[in-house]
Amino acid sequence: MPVEAMYLEKSVAVVIPAYNEENLIGQTLSTLPDFVDRVIVVNDASKDNTSAIVQEIAKKNVRVILIDHERNEGVGGAIVTGYKKAREMKTDVTVVMAGDGQMDPNDLPYIIEPVARGEVDYTKGNRLFQGDAWKMIPHHRYLGNSFLSLLTKFASGYWHIADSQTGYTAISLMALTKLDLDGIYKSYGMPNDMLIKLNQFDFRVRDVHISPVYNIGEKSKMKLLRVIPRISWLLFTGFWRRLFFKYVIKDFHPLVFFYAFSFLLLTVSIPLTIRLLYVWATTGIIPSINAMALIFTVISGLQTLFFGMWFDMDYNKNLR
After folding, report:
1. pTM of the model
2. DSSP letters of 220-253?
3. How far apart are CA 153 and CA 298, in angstroms?
């Protein structure tokens, strides 16, 4: 067993999900600071030499633990495997870093410290705090990230979280113990699903400034046109599960009715809009009753939506 290095008298583990990272995994492992007690590399059934490279490093570095998946389970599945190992070892703070060197190890103390001090239960790196993030992050990824981050605010109830897609995170042992790790989404929507599940148990979450790292030889495996619809649906269903669990089962709150009523009214406004446009296009006349009904559903739907958001923000304002 390695000698406990610790950070603020808390043991620290870094989970690194790795899939075909033979070019950068060695560099990533070599840059981890000495206060990291254990490094759990989860090889997600890579087709290259990732596993062999990590095995060689582990022979020389007792901190490194390699776990090989027999089949590919996705980045979320690899992280969950690492979480389970860290929980088994009763590690106080567990960090997730990518295996492609895109997460600056110099930011590790900022990610770890709020959790180690017991101020929050979960921290997330925020690349968007950087003033020139637009120049540093590929534009299509920046825009996709911003869109999903907006949807995640609604779905998770953490309205202060601005960069939902970053995987640079730290979590407390208490949160790892309470969460159903097997129920967490296994693919690229895992960070979003984590936030939804953390909010259900009122865990405190904080954004932490980190520096975006790109153009070091990494190759993104995420296809935005495929990922955004999947994550959007995940967020939609997760939103309603969160409301039911948190505001009906655990502690009733009337904001459920505001959200439900707004969704009903705004859904009804869609066929009303289609009918109004069809009649207008075919007859040149705007049907007055149709128009009045549409105005009522849109205005009332938006009003109740804003009330629901306001109540949700107020209820979760202390979870930061």
Report:
1. 0.87
2. ----HHHHHHHHHHHHHHHHHHHHHIIIIIIS--
3. 22
